[in-house]
Amino acid sequence: MFDFNNTNPFTFECEFNKLNNDVGTQANIPLLNNISKISNTKDIACGPDVSCLNMNSFLGYHSITNESQLKDLTSTTFKVFNLLLSFISDSCYSAVSKENRLMIFLIKIKLGISYSAIGVLFNINRTTVSRIFYSVLNSLVSKTKHFIFWPNKKSILDTLPRAFKQNYPNCRCIIDCTEIKTEQPSTVEQRVNMYSRYKNAYTVKTLVAITPSGLISFLSKCYGGRASDTFITNDCGFLSKLEKGDEVLADKGFPGIKVSCENKNSILIMPPFLHNGRFSENEVVETYNLLV
């Protein structure tokens, strides 16, 4: 910014030499001596000032301040987290609290990030993260097996939802096979057994049964993706739990267990298959009842 309140005159001199045909000029500008600096200003910006950011690092479980944050990282509530925490001992990995060990396990299950990435979050080596994961896994497997049980028939009928009472009053369970993608196995034999044509990937499959009210009542061991739904159902021991008159609801992937169910005096109910390009009126009604 220039200060024009200056009383000093502006001087300009010009000399011309005719002999040498030369011109020289000189100017005296007092105004330049009174230039003042423009004051520094800051532009208005969005977001927090970097100088005001809290630079505290991630402290694992102690960084969780509300249940929403816990769900984002682990998909559990505080109630479920504390229940699982009661199954983990204090004896191993004393340098890492059992709260953080459980968090490491649940973050791996929930987010699927690498051991190295989790190690960065908790400031520990990736091999330590791996050992913690398998340690917690083994503890929870042994302590939570009783969470899945086969309810007696009376309990199921007493809690039968209204939608089942009219069309499927003897429904014992609904079954389906869950398929989970895996990394490529190391051996050729494992690749053959685990490759799923349906998923076009390497997978493991397990049969899951739920009661009409939504309780998981049966979970089979894991099979390679090559195994069919029919083979898994016949092999895993599920059919031995059925009783006379039980109705089992399934999708179209289980036609091969129809005879096995009949041998147990049980009834397999599946959506009808399409014949001659269209469903009959009764088949449409049956399909509708299964879907609703």
UniProtKB/TrEMBL annotation:
<protein>
    <recommendedName>
        <fullName>DDE Tnp4 domain-containing protein</fullName>
    </recommendedName>
</protein>
<feature type="domain" description="DDE Tnp4">
    <location>
        <begin position="175"/>
        <end position="290"/>
    </location>
</feature>
<dbReference type="Pfam" id="PF13359">
    <property type="entry name" value="DDE_Tnp_4"/>
</dbReference>
<dbReference type="InterPro" id="IPR027806">
    <property type="entry name" value="HARBI1_dom"/>
</dbReference>
<dbReference type="Pfam" id="PF13613">
    <property type="entry name" value="HTH_Tnp_4"/>
</dbReference>
<dbReference type="InterPro" id="IPR027805">
    <property type="entry name" value="Transposase_HTH_dom"/>
</dbReference>
<keyword id="KW-0479">Metal-binding</keyword>
<dbReference type="GO" id="GO:0046872">
    <property type="term" value="F:metal ion binding"/>
</dbReference>
<feature type="domain" description="Transposase Helix-turn-helix">
    <location>
        <begin position="96"/>
        <end position="143"/>
    </location>
</feature>
